[in-house]
Structures are given as C-alpha cells and as structure tokens.
Amino acid sequence: SPSKASKAGGRPLSSPCRWWNSLPDLMMGPGERQPLLQVHGVRFAYPPLAPHSPAPWVLDGLDLRLEAGEWLALMGASDAGKTTLCLLLAGLAPHLTGGTLEGRVLIAGQDTRRRPPPALADRVGLLFQEPDAQLFNPSVEAEIAWGLENLGLPSAEIEARIAEMLALFHLEAVRRRPPGALSGGEKKRAALAAVLALRPALLILDEPLGGLDPVGRREVLAALETLRRDRAAAILMTESDPEAAVAFADRLAVLHEGRLAAQGPPRDLLRRVEAMAAWGVAAPQMAHLAAALNRRLGTAFDFVTVEEARAALEPGWGGVESGPLEAQRPASPPPDDAAGRPPALQVRGLEFWYDAARPVLRGLDLDIPQGQFAALVGANGSGKTTLIKQFNGLLRPRRGIVRVNGQDAAGRSIGELARQVGFLFQHPEQQIFSPTVRQEVAFGPRNLGLPPEEVEARVRAALDRFDLAAVADEPPAILGYGLRRRVTLASLAAQDPPILILDEPTVGLDAAGRAETFAWLTELHAQGRTILLVSHDMALVAAYARRVIVLHAGQIIGDGPPSAIFARPDLLARASLAPPPLAQLAQALGLPPSCLTVDAFCAEYAARR
Ligand SMILES: Nc1ncnc2c1ncn2[C@@H]1O[C@H](COP(=O)(O)OP(=O)(O)OP(=O)(O)O)[C@@H](O)[C@H]1O
Ligand SMILES: [Mg+2]
Questions:
Q1: Which domains does the chain have, with CATH numbers?
Q2: Residue 135 has pLDDT above 50, yes or no
Q3: pLDDT at 5 over 60
Q4: pLDDT tens track for 231-260
Q5: Ligand 1, atom 31: nearest CA belongs to which residue?
C-alpha cells in the first residue's frame, strides 16, 4: 500500500502516493473546504542530548486546525513550545531537527512526514524567530530571489516580486547589502520579505514583529492583512504583543507546557489578566488598567483597547471639577534624580560611518549622568546599536569623542571598558559562547578576578533571579530564544557593572521575563547604577525610564522625561514611534501626560471621581 511504501523511506514520491495524499480532497462533500492545516494528536520530542538519556515531550498532545484566510495568534511562556510547533508545522521538524513525532501534521491534506520541506515550499512559508538563522545569501535581494528561483518562476516575475517586497519593507536602500551589514530590524524585514515573496497559502511566522519599530509593526501587520484578504492566506504567528493579537488575529491559542491551554477570540481570552499571567502571557495594557480600576475602586470596567477604554471612561469624566486637584498635583514630573551628576557616558561631536558614503551617526552630543535610567529609542536603522557600541569599544568614532566615566574611551581596550560598562547585545547568539549556562554566567565575574566564593555566590543569585537553575548545566545552544535571552541577562547581573547598556533586552521574553527584567533594572537604578536601555517597547520605556532620547537618522531629535516625549505625537511619528496605549488614552481624555503607568492612571481616576 502507499503508506507502506512511504514507511520504506527514502523513496521518491510516486504517483500512487500523490493520489493517496489527495484522497481527503475527494472525500469532501460539495462546498466543504479542507482546512489548510490540520494537527492531530501531535507529540514531539527532540533527540536526546546523550544516547539513552530521556527526551521529554516538548509538545504533548496537540490538536489544531486552520482554514484558508484565517489568522491565528499563538502565545505562551518562554519554553512553552511555540518555536518547536512552528518548525513542526512547516515540516522542518522532524526532517531537519530529528526527534520523535507522534500524530499527524497535514498541510493542504499532505502529511508533512511524507513530504520533505522543499516539496511544501510553495504551500507553507516559515519565518524563523531569529533572522540570522534564515539569512544566508550574499545580499538582501539575493535572499528574496533565492526562494523564487527555487520555485522556478520566470525571471520577470521574480524581478517584480523582489521590487514589490523591497518597497513594502522599505529595503530599497539596503538591497545590495549582506545580512551582516543590516540593523536588527532590517534583518527581520529582509527575512519577512523573503518569506512573503513566495506567497505561500500558509504562513508560519515565529515572532514576526520582534525587534521592529512601532510603525514597522503596523506596516507588517497591514501587509499580512492584505495577504489574508486578497489571497486567502492562512497565518499562524507567535507574538508577545497582545495589542497586535487583539487588533488582527481571529483566534488566539495559548500554548502551555506543550499543550493548548485555551483557544478563542483574542479579546475574550486576553481580558482575563490573571489567567493569562499564569500562562506567561501579557494582557493588553488596557485590560490591566480595567482590572486595576475594578480591584481598587470596585468598578466593573471591561475594556481591552484604547477606544473601548475611552468610551467607558469618558462619560464619568466630563462633569468633574478638576481645579483643586490640579493644584495638588506637582506642576511637572518629579525631577530626574540623576540630573546634575557627573556624566557616566558622554559623546561630543560623534560621527560614525561603516561606509564613508553613508553617514550613520551625524554629529551627536550627549551626556548620561551617573545613576540615570535613560532609554534610547528610534526607528529601525536610526543608529541606536551603532551609538551604544561606541561605549564598549566595539566601534570607535570616526570623528568626535566618547568618554566613559570622564575618561576618553579612545585609549582603552574593549577589556578595560568592560570593567565599567556591561553590555547586553541585541541578539543572544552574539554574546553566548560557553559550553554551559553556569559557565556563561560565571564568565563575567571570573574575568573581574573576583575570589571563587564571590563568583559562586553571584552566579547562584543570577541563576535564581532569572529562573535558570534548572538548566544551569545545559548547553545554552539547545535552549529556546527566551531562555537564551535570560542567560545573557543573568550574565550581566553576575558581572554587576556600574554602567549597564542593554540593546532590546525584552525581545523574545515572555510576560514574566519582562517583569523580572524591569524589576531588576529598577533595583539597580535605586542602587545608583547607570542604565542606558534601547527598546522598541514604548509601554516599558514610558513606565520605567526617567529620560527618553529619540534618535532619527543618526541625530538626536528629542530628549526629555517620558511625559514630555510621549505627549508629542509629531515627534514620535517622525521617528517611526507611537505612544503606548496609556499615553494615547491619557491624551484622548485630556489627562496630564504623566499618567504613563497603570498606578498613576488609577490615582488620577480615583482623585477625579
Ligand atoms: N556592519 C554594518 N555595516 C554596514 N552598515 C551597517 C552595519 N551595521 C549597521 N549598518 C547600518 O547602519 C545604520 C544604523 O544601524 P543600527 O544597527 O545602528 O540601527 P538600530 O537603530 O540599532 O536599528 P534596529 O532598531 O533595527 O536595531 C543602518 O542603516 C544599518 O543598515
Ligand atoms: Mg539595533
């Protein structure tokens, strides 16, 4: 029988096999459509690390269907199995990963176990969580062309699709550049362009928005919406941004410890703030606000979007006499506790270019005083990573001066600078090189020449803090992205430098990981450490940073407290940024721009009621 033939393995697919695979189609009644994706009783385990060692089920009993034109968001804690599920749905697991698969994954009725990934390339497109895992061609345009050539499309069609994708993702200026010469967000866009160019019926996207600036996120979501509408593409995306799931997905599936813990309309699930937290999923900021108001004031609000919140809150707002309260409120936000201290980080007339024809940093002057918690924000490619790499000596100014704690960085080696400046790279794989998690975390403190007991104590505390004790003796390479990110955070915590520079520390982290990271940063700030954070997460920046520096095309176009910066939509738009939901709501209700946290908003609301 055909199924026996395929079990014999390695045999090229013959016509009876094809006939068998299309049987489900023939058996459908008139008007009935076969789901594009069917997952039946799937369990999956990676190959064991050592022969005969146990290999746990990473996915453990999963059923899922996706119809053409449907958009499913998949959310869950780090390590829930999201990336593994993506690899499985695209047929890469177990073909490339090895491991054990039970149950069946059918794409357009075809069992992925019988179809090697190339045979499915015209039906399913996979975006890897890490663009570096995907980009291997010498240029952006070659990357997009590669898949199209493999599909055997005519060259005119290939050219047209490349042009369309370069325009859609604003990649024209970097089309000839190798992936290594792109910013983090540009890499993500290039990887997305290469996948979307193939126009597959089924798109499996592992964190398509991670590392994109706010405007870029909206653009990608709009492009996906168009593909779904015009070509009935089915989309499955993992995403940590609940606002995006509410706005775009038809359905949300929560993955928890390898099983689907819940499925349903995103809005209905994501308003359950506590249940979501237990599954490691962040709820929308507005749902947090509703829950906090209800808890503290006994109200019965139920909103998850800014529009809903505005409609619910505005009626109670109008008649309130706000005069006396205005007088009680401090006229401006509390002064920055660090202003006036000597600079920890300083640049004067800083210019930098990778290639002389394209200036990247165009004459920057900046002082970050000791003890300040500052955030650096700006569009993908605006120069954020390029700027912060000047402080650890990975890049050196072409013109101008960089000082760390008052000393010119020019004469100092990377190693010397590392004693003062701890650095978290944008991508964990740029940073991790030790054979075990424990050794990786110990590297920093050991390098400082600390006594072994002290190294040991710091490593233990850092592993605990970032919940890594259970994987301490595993090789970092086998961990998922979120866990590897936590390893890099733990390394920095163990090193405990006076100045910390973090390049997008929360990308790939789940809700608990983000909360833990910011609790840690807040503690460090209270202890007087200097923190410079690069982030595209405006809600976190607004809530935690004391100062926001806006970079646009290599120049600083805004610099001030979050309340001032997030009250300027014009400035934000110029830098491809957008205010976080709370700032949008505060603006809509005419509240002071200092209402940037759920707590501040609740206090304001309670006072006005
Ligand atoms: N190694 C490199 N060689 C050449 N050009 C580069 C290199 N790295 C970055 N660039 C370019 O320099 C500019 C600034 O890049 P940078 O990585 O500093 O941006 P970014 O603000 O950190 O962006 P993102 O938010 O995407 O991480 C971009 O135009 C980018 O394409
Ligand atoms: Mg960057």
A1: 2-278 (3.40.50.300), 286-333+567-609 (no CATH), 343-420+498-560 (3.40.50.300), 431-496 (no CATH)
A2: yes
A3: no
A4: 999 999 998 889 999 999 999 999 999 999
A5: 182
Which atom of ligand 1 is closest in space to residue 213's alpha carbon?
25
DSSP code at position 60: E
**What letter would DSSP give residue 90?**
T
Q: How far is the CA of 609 from the centre of ligand 2 (A)?
A: 43
100, 60 Cβ separation under 8 angstroms: no
Mean pLDDT value of segment 563-581: 94
In whole angstroms, what separates CA 238 from the centre of its chain?
10
- Pairwise CA distance, residues 170 & 177, whole Å: 14
Q: Which amino acid is at 551?
A: L
Q: Which residues surround ligand 2, an ion (CB under 5 A)?
A: 183-184, 384-385, 426
Atom of ligand 1 nearest to the CA of 384: 21
Tell me the pairing of strands 37-45 and 530-534: unpaired
Greatest C-alpha distance within the chain: 84
Q: What is the pLDDT of residue 318?
A: 54
How buried is residue 91: exposed, middle or buried, by Cβ count under 10 Å (0-12/13-18/19+)?
buried
β-bridge pairing 399-404 and 343-355? antiparallel
Residue 31, pLDDT > 80, answer: no
- Of these ranges, 215-224, 341-350, 503-512, the one predicted with the greatest mean pLDDT is 341-350
CA atoms within 13 A on the CB side of 417: 26
Mutation test of ligand 1: which of 174, 182, 220, 423 has the most ligand atoms closer than 8 Å to its C-beta? 182
SS (H, E, C) 371-421: CCEEEEEECCCCCHHHHHCCCCCCCCCCEEEEEECCEECCCCCHHHHHCCE
Report DSSP state, residue 359: E
Q: Quote the tokens at residue 438.
A: 């424990």
Return the pLDDT at 328. 43
Residues touching ligand 1 (Cβ under 6 Å) are: 174, 180-186, 354-355, 360, 378, 380-386, 426
Using alpha carbons, list the distances in angstroms from residue 407 to 91, 344, 345: 54, 9, 9
> Cα 365 from chain centroid?
30
Q: What pLDDT was estimated at residue 26? A: 36
Question: Are 74 and 94 contacting, i.e. CB atoms less than 8 angstroms apart?
Answer: no
The answer on pLDDT for 17 being more than 90 is no
Identify the weakest region by mean pLDDT among 2-16, 37-51, 391-405, 570-584: 2-16
Rounded to the nearest integer, the mean pLDDT of the chain is 89
d(CA 117, CA 136): 17
